[in-house]
Task: inverse folding
């Protein structure tokens, strides 16, 4: 059995859904189980509808609901033509959209969108896309069978970011999903959504369809999980910055996790953890280029010195110096308390006995933070800094890779350095405008033409 998950752009319109069908058809022999996201942009639209109606803008909200109806009907007609199947699907989808419209009116009356009602509304995206996919797959000759995600993905009541109950999910998956696949049919389920034991609709948090796929794969001990998206996989660097960035065949889970904090928006590694942890390989593939090799993410990966270079600018560096820090226990705690109180998330940290430097992404909290920090010692703020990260499973094994990384930065002012606790991420804080040139220099050092990637 394999789990085949299609993201929003991979089911974004009739053509994409047809491509998805042929990808599934090519995997018939492996008992594919399909998980789909909402069509691209639909979850955002649904959440906007909820906010709008709760704010009293019912007419605008209903207009957006009707636009969603239009979009889904149109794609259904493109896929199924003028046929009884199309009429049946359209009346089913139309009934769902009517419910959605009623919910929208209810939110408008209440004047409030609670997490519970946000989930009830957001869930329509995957409910619609999964029905659409089933009908389209059947039209392409695949014996697709809709599986109601809310019967399988059992969660707690933490609406908008519900925690899955893995035992209950395993039980339901074995009962409702596995027999369908074993029978030669193709189960198709919406990702992202679940339900509490008493039947309230929940969602697993944004981007949650990958999580659904991983949970299902783990529950069924699938051979592999394929995440079909709109990029080729993970690369040695952002190709918009580094010309000649290369596709990575294989990446370790811990490496992928370090890279994810740099907006490598391929997927969030934590969402696939339930599967990777069990040794189930996860492949990231491009549905526009189904013959590509993609990137394989596994728990253990080849121990390369350097796997990828990442970077971001717009970072603020804060330096705090105080003689009081010397020998005083609890100082770091007091410092981080300030950030916690102001809800400012700290990214990189380096400390010595008398100073601590750290970076934050969101400088909007700075004015509020500063007076509290100044009570602790001398504070210096450096805006417009950037972070470059060198990530590799064997980065700190032996001195060679570190020496080469720093050697490549010989003429660049470095404002801070930090090696992750895992030893696989060397983070370098440089001037904001140096981020791209530094990334290119490091990439050239480690991935120059002819250098092996894996
Ligand atoms: N449709 C949901 C979202 O956009 C879940 C997903 O696509 O993974 O967040
Ligand atoms: Mg999405």
Result:
């Amino acid at each position: 059995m394999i789990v085949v998950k299609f993201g929003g752009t991979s089911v974004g319109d009739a053509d994409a859904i047809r491509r998805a069908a042929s990808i599934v058809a090519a995997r018939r022999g492996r008992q594919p189980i399909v998980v789909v996201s909402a069509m691209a942009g639909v979850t955002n639209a649904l959440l906007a509808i909820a906010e709008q109606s709760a704010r009293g803008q019912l007419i605008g909200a209903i207009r957006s609901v009707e636009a969603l109806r239009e979009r889904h009907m149109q794609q259904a007609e493109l896929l199924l033509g003028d046929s009884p199947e199309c009429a049946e699907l359209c009346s089913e989808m139309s009934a769902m959209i009517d419910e959605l419209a009623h919910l929208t009116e209810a939110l408008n009356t209440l004047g409030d969108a609670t997490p519970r009602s946000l989930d009830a509304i957001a869930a329509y995206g995957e409910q619609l896309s999964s029905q659409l996919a089933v009908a389209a797959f059947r039209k392409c000759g695949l014996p697709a069978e809709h599986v109601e995600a809310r019967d399988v993905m059992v969660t707690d009541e933490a609406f908008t970011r519900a925690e899955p109950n893995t035992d209950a999910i395993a039980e339901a998956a074995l009962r409702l999903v596995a027999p369908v696949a074993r029978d030669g049919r193709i189960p198709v389920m919406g990702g992202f959504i679940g339900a509490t034991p008493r039947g309230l609709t929940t969602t697993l948090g944004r981007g949650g369809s990958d999580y659904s796929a991983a949970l299902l794969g783990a529950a069924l001990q699938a051979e592999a999980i394929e995440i079909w998206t709109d990029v080729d996989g993970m690369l040695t660097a952002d190709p918009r910055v580094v010309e000649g960035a290369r596709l990575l065949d294989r990446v370790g889970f811990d490496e992928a996790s370090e890279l994810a904090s740099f907006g490598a928006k391929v997927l969030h590694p934590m969402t696939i953890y339930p599967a990777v942890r069990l040794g189930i390989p996860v492949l990231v593939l491009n549905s526009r280029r189904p013959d590509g090799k993609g990137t394989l993410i596994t728990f253990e990966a080849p121990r390369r010195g350097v796997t990828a270079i990442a970077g971001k600018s717009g970072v603020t560096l804060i330096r705090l110096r105080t003689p009081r820090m010397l020998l005083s226990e609890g100082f770091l705690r007091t410092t981080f308390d300030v950030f916690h109180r102001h809800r400012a998330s700290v990214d990189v940290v380096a400390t010595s006995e008398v100073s601590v430097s750290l970076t934050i992404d969101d400088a909007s909290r700075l004015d509020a933070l500063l007076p509290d920090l100044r009570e602790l010692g001398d504070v210096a703020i450096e805006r417009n800094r950037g972070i470059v990260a060198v990530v590799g499973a064997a980065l700190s094994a032996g001195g060679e890779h570190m020496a080469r990384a720093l050697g490549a930065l010989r003429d660049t002012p470095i404002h801070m350095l930090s090696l992750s606790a895992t030893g696989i991420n060397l983070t370098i804080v440089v001037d904001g405008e140096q981020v791209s040139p530094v990334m290119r220099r490091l990439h050239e050092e480690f991935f120059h033409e002819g250098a092996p990637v894996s």
